[in-house]
Design brief:
This protein is an all-alpha fold and about 90 residues long. It contains three helices and no strands.
Length: about 90
């Protein structure tokens, strides 16, 4: 849970800092060319980070699902094996 929270938070912080580059390069609206230049740099990186964050979310969900299935399977008792031994004892 903590790892998932940290991954999501880190992705959002990176995206927010990339969007902030537009305002930094544009000097808060004083320089239009810098703002456009910052947008040309920030928008592709922001899209890339969004897709990377989506990939990380699916990967985390897959790993969580597989581990949950594994732990549930290990926690269940195996009744079938004991039943076979009881049948062998009668023959």
């Amino acid at each position: 849970m903590i790892r998932l929270f940290a991954n999501i938070t880190a992705g959002h912080i990176i995206i927010l800092s990339l969007v902030g580059l537009i305002f930094i390069f544009g000097q808060a609206g004083a320089n239009l060319g810098g703002g456009i230049g910052g947008a040309l740099v920030a928008v592709p990186f922001t899209l890339f980070m969004s897709f990377l964050e989506l990939l990380v979310a699916f990967l985390q969900a897959f790993i969580f699902t597989m581990l949950s299935a594994l732990f549930i399977a290990l926690a269940q008792e195996d009744h079938g094996h004991d039943h076979e031994h009881a049948a062998d004892a009668h023959h």
